[in-house]
Design a protein that fits this description.
single chain, alpha+beta, seven-stranded antiparallel beta sheet, three-stranded antiparallel beta sheet, about 45% strand, globular
C-alpha cells in the first residue's frame, strides 16, 4: 500500500480518463469532474444521517467505462472486504481511520461476483489514515477500515476495474 500526493492523484485520474478514451468508443459523453473538499463534505452530510444506524453509507457519483467514483462516510469499524475485479483508490477528505490491508479474511462469505465480505482481516498490515492521504488497494487484496470510538472518516473512492 502506498500513499500519494494530491498531484499524483490528479495525474492518475487524468490517466484513467485517457485509458478509457484509448480503449475505443465511449458510450457516454466525455467530461471531466471536479469536486472541491467543501463540496464533498457538503454532499457527505446526508451520508452521515444514513450512517447513523449501520455505521457507514456511500453513494456512487459517476460511472465510466472501466471505473466509477463514490463518496463514503463511516463512523465505526467496517468488515473485511475483497474485490477480485476492482482496485480501490481512497482519498481521505476528512477525519481519520486505520486501514488493515493484506492478510486473510476471517469468516468470509461471497456476496456477489468477485465480492467477499467477512468479520475481519487477520495478519494484515495496519496504516493510519488522515485527511489528505491517498491509498491504493489492488484488486484481490483483503482490507478493512477501523475507527476509534468517536472518530469518523469521509473518503472519495475510485473503483478501477482490473482484468486478470
Amino acid at each position: 500500500m502506498k500513499r500519494f500526493s494530491r498531484e499524483v492523484l490528479a495525474t492518475a485520474g487524468a490517466m484513467l480518463i485517457s485509458i478509457g478514451l484509448a480503449g475505443g468508443a465511449m458510450a457516454q459523453e466525455v467530461k471531466s469532474d471536479h469536486w472541491s473538499r467543501g463540496e464533498l463534505l457538503e454532499r457527505a452530510k446526508h451520508l452521515q444521517e444514513l450512517a447513523a444506524e449501520k455505521g457507514s453509507a456511500s453513494e456512487k457519483l459517476e460511472t465510466y467505462p472501466h471505473h466509477f467514483t463514490m463518496l463514503a462516510f463511516r463512523n465505526r469499524n467496517g468488515g473485511a472486504e475483497v474485490h477480485q475485479n476492482y482496485a480501490d483508490v481512497f482519498f481521505i477528505v476528512d477525519g481519520k481511520a486505520g486501514l488493515v490491508t493484506g492478510g486473510e479474511v476471517v469468516d468470509g462469505k461471497t456476496t456477489g461476483p468477485g465480492e467477499t465480505l467477512g468479520a475481519s482481516v487477520k495478519g494484515g498490515s495496519r496504516q493510519e489514515l488522515k485527511a489528505g492521504d491517498v491509498v491504493h488497494i489492488p484488486a484481490g487484496m483483503p482490507h478493512q477500515m477501523l475507527l476509534a470510538d468517536g472518530d469518523t472518516v469521509t473518503y472519495y473512492v475510485v473503483k478501477v476495474e482490473e482484468t486478470r
